[in-house]
Design a protein that fits this description.
Blueprint: H1 8-11, H2 15-21, H3 26-40, E1 47-51, H4 57-64, E2 68-73, H5 76-82, E3 90-94, E4 106-111, H6 122-135, E5 136-147, H7 149-154, E6 159-164, E7 167-175, E8 179-187, E9 195-202, H8 206-215, E10 218-224, E11 239-246
Parallel strand pairs: 1-2, 1-4, 2-3, 4-5
Antiparallel strand pairs: 5-11, 6-7, 7-8, 8-9, 10-11
Helix pairs in contact: 3-4
C-alpha cells in the first residue's frame, strides 16, 4: 500500500481524528500531566513548548497549572480552534516542528501521545530533535512520550471497530521491520462515502532515541513506562516516556 509521505497533514486536521483519540480521555490526560509536573517540579511561570499540540488540550492543562505555554502544530484548523483559548500565558502558532520555534528560549518542551516518528526520512526526525534542542535553554528539559515498540508488536490487534457518536471507525493494523501501520476507515451518516486514512509510525526504540538525543546535546535522565509514571520495562510497558535535559555543546 502506498502511503502519502505527509499523511499526517490531513489526518491530524480532521475532526474525526480528534473524536477517535482525544474526546474520551480528558481525565486521563489531566492526571498524566499532573503526575508529570509533580515529578519535574518546574518553577511557577516556566516557559514551556508543546510540540505538535493539536487543538491545545495539553497546552491548556499546563497553562492552568501556572506556566507560560506555547503550542505549535502544522494543522491549520487545529491551531485555529486552539486560539480561542489564548490568553496572556497561553499562545498557539502554526509551525512545523522540524524547524526551531525560538532559540534558547524555553525551559521545558513536551511532545505527547506519539506525535513523532511520522516523517519519511531519518533526517527529518533528526531535524525535529535538533529544533527542539535549539529551542531549549541550557539544562532545559524535553519530555517525549512515545509508544513502546516491543509491547506494541506483542499486543497488536489486526482488526477492530469503534463506534463513537454514530461514527464507525474500522481499524486495520499491521507492521513491518521499521514501521507500524494503521488504516482507519470512517463511516458516518453525514458522509457521502467512507473516508480512509493510513498512519505510519517509525519503530524507534529507547536506544534509537538515546542516539538521536545525544547527537543534539540532549541526555536522557529518566524513562517511564506508562501514564502512571511506572518504571519502564521493554517487554511490559505500553509507553516509552523519556525525560532528557539539554547539555552544553
Amino acid at each position: 500500500m502506498e502511503i502519502s509521505s505527509e499523511w499526517f497533514r490531513d489526518w491530524f486536521d480532521s475532526p474525526y481524528y480528534h473524536k477517535l483519540y482525544f474526546e474520551h480521555n480528558e481525565q486521563e490526560a489531566t492526571a498524566f500531566i499532573s503526575r508529570l509536573i509533580d515529578a519535574l517540579m518546574p518553577p511557577a511561570g516556566s516557559l514551556m513548548l508543546d510540540v505538535a499540540c493539536g487543538r491545545g488540550r495539553h497546552s491548556r492543562i499546563l497553562s492552568e497549572k501556572g506556566f507560560d505555554v506555547t503550542g505549535i502544530d502544522l494543522a491549520a484548523d487545529s491551531i485555529a480552534l486552539a486560539r480561542q483559548y489564548e490568553n496572556a500565558h497561553l499562545h498557539f502558532y502554526l509551525h512545523d516542528m522540524r524547524s526551531p520555534m525560538r532559540i534558547n528560549y524555553f525551559a521545558y518542551a513536551f511532545n505527547f501521545f506519539t506525535s513523532f516518528g511520522y516523517f519519511r526520512t531519518q533526517r527529518e526526525h533528526d531535524n525535529t530533535i535538533r529544533a527542539v534542542g535549539q529551542s531549549l535553554v541550557d539544562r532545559g528539559i524535553f519530555v517525549l512520550d512515545y509508544l513502546n515498540v516491543r509491547y506494541s508488536e506483542d499486543h497488536l490487534v489486526p482488526q477492530s471497530t469503534k463506534t463513537i457518536g454514530g461514527t464507525v471507525y474500522h481499524l486495520t493494523k499491521w507492521n513491518d521491520e521499521k514501521h507500524f501501520y494503521k488504516k482507519i476507515s470512517i463511516t458516518d451518516p453525514t458522509l457521502k462515502e467512507p473516508l480512509c486514512f493510513t498512519e505510519k509510525v517509525a519503530k524507534f526504540t529507547l536506544g534509537d532515541f538515546n542516539d538521536m538525543f545525544a547527537f543534539h546535546h540532549l541526555q536522557i535522565q529518566e524513562v517511564y513506562g506508562d501514564y502512571q509514571l511506572g518504571s519502564y520495562d521493554v517487554k511490559k510497558s505500553p509507553r516509552l516516556i523519556m525525560i532528557a535535559d539539554k547539555v552544553k555543546s
